[in-house]
Amino acid sequence: MKKIAIATCARIPELIPAEQSIVKELAQKGFDTQPVVWTDTSINWQQYDLVIIRSVWDYFKKYEAFIKWLDQLQNLGIKVCNTIEVMKANSHKFYLEHLAAQGIAIVPTVFVRQNSVVSITEMLSQQNWQQGIIKPAISASAYKTYKLAQTEASDYQSKLEDLVQETDVLVQAFLPQIQTEGEWSLMFFGGKYSHSVRKVPKNQEFRVQSEFGGQALAETPPPFVIHQAQNIVDIHGEELLYARVDGVVVEGNFLLMELELIEPELFLDRDSEATTRFVTAIINAL
Fold it and tell me: N or C: which end of the chain has fewer CB within 10 A?
């Protein structure tokens, strides 16, 4: 019997409720599947035929340890999904710069290298952005993410300087469509489209995550959004066990905000067949 580890964090040792069904369905198909906390040093990872990265939602706060752990798995010759190479590249949000160079439409972004000297006031003025977003290149769940208006940019200069001293930074245009229409998240398993949600923030909020009061509604986007998201996923070919494409529609165009390939919530509970499709992709990956 093949053994599968589903990597999670210490805060959620049994996986989120929506993903506990993965363990049950794999067990029904004859696979010994266990949620395992990635930081647990007592684990013998060599016992597993496959490690699936899921809710490792603290990795960006323990980034060096996370990369070291991935290297350990690689050195042991353990199959990991998504692949270690893919996750390392995806852990730094400057991957958006590379996707833009390949013709993918992204949210307007200025990529600020660590230790750069920048003026947020001048940047917003030069880009003609009325509102902007500041976020670190290695982060998740809106960690150290700030929304600001051009008129108050100077108030955020010190926050930007502090971030730039720590890491690379993205400064992006804030798109009001996020608050009025919401953000699309499209899930792909084994490179194939599965299902979608439309994430909407609560009133007066810009962050769509549930911890900030956002909601994820089970809806299907227009065909052109699915097509564009598929084009983004296809850049990686069939090597992706899972992917989540996050973006927003602006004037009839789908703009990529994030391509989540490490630990995205997959909203398996928003589609009755999603877990089965994911489990099928896992078995195919073996």
Answer: N
